[in-house]
Every structure is written in C-alpha cells, then in structure tokens.
Amino acid sequence: MSMNYRNILYLGSSSPRRYELLTRMGIPCEVLTFEMEEFLDQELPPGKLSTALSEQKMQTCLHLYGDSRWIVTADTLISLDEHKLGKPSDRREAAEMLYRMQGRTHQVYTGVTLYSPMEKAFISRWDCTDVSFSPMNDQEIQKYLETEEWKGAAGAYRIQEKGGMFITCLKGTYFNVMGLPINLLYGMLKQLKFSI
To answer: 3-state SS of 87-155?
Structure first.
C-alpha cells in the first residue's frame, strides 16, 4: 500500500457538503469522482436501502480506483408514508416532493460505508433523523424552487441553506440531514483504526 494513502480519507461522493463536513472534522480528504445510476428499491426498508446504495458506490470506487485507499461513501434518502424519495430529476418532481412533505414529518436516512485498505473489507451503518416541515403555501414552494437548491438534494431541500427556514423540528442529528452523520462515521473510523 502506498504511504501517501495511509492518513487520507477518500470520499466517494461529489457532494460539497460531505467534503466540507470531513474537512471540519480535521480529516485530510480527497474526492473520488464516478457515475452511478441509483435505483430506489421500494421493497427494502429505508435504512437497509440507504446502506445498500452506499455499498454500491463503494464497489464502484473499488473497481475504478483499487483497494489501497481508505474510502468512505454515503447515500441519503427520504422516507415518507413508507415511500422512499431520492434526488428529484427535475423541478416538477421537486415540487411534488415539497408539496407532499410540507406541514408533515418525514425521515432522513443516510447509509455510510467505510473501507479499510488494511483489512481489505468495508463496514456499513445507517442513521435516521425525523424532520418536521412547517406548512408551505404555493408561493413559498415556488419561490424556494427558484433557488435551485433542490438540484442534487434528497427530498428537494437543503437544511443548511434556505430550506432550513421551513424546518420546525429535528429529532436526531443535524449532520445526518446534511448527508453525513459525522458521529456515526467517527465511530466507524475508530473501529477500523483510521488515524485521525
């Protein structure tokens, strides 16, 4: 294994939020880019689905970049009325998601997978946060859609940006809703003996 990879955590995600959270933790981090089509299997429980998607991302990273790096991948999805919601494909779908969630509580699940080059194996965990939205009228939803924060965001909103204005209550971790539950990840890093 290359010495250069030993204390660097490679992030298999193009999410700037996840990168920001890792750097806030003081972890040297580099991004691995790749393309992968996500399929939301509505038959799987949301926690299991989020980890399955995270593991698919890990397998893609290992295939493209090899097994000599520490790698972390993650996948975030929304559960509402036992239906899983991912990233909206367009503004119309984003609007549908926001209309469904306004005035209600939904669950945010993030699956996290961590690969150890020493063990040549990975572990996966998931976290869940209840998020309650205030009621939103048509004008508020359309104005929020104009911000384009919905692009690339599970559930069509970003809690750390303007979307936070509509959130009335959280039960669970804020960072999980951002897309990376850092306390969960910290425990995983300790378990696999990554040097922070």
So the answer is: CCCCHHHHHHHHHHHCCCEEEEEEEEEEEECCCCEEEEEEEEEEEEECCCCHHHHHHHHHCCCCCCCHH
Report mean pLDDT in 10-residue bins for the chain, 196 residues: 66 92 93 83 90 96 95 96 91 97 97 96 98 97 96 94 96 96 96 89
Catalytic residue among 67, 75, 127, 130: 75
Phi, psi of 180 (to 5 degrees): -155, 100
Amino acid symbol at 75: D
d(CA 17, CA 99): 25
In the numeric block, which tokens belong to residue 90? 């367009």
CA–CA gap between residue 84 and residue 56 (Å, rounded): 17
pTM score: 0.92
* Cβ atoms of 125 and 165 closer than 8 Å: no
Distance CA 133, CA 105 (A): 6
Q: Which helix (H) or strand (E) holds 70?
A: strand 70-80
Rounded distance, CA 189 to CA 196, Å?
A: 8
**127 is a catalytic site residue:** no
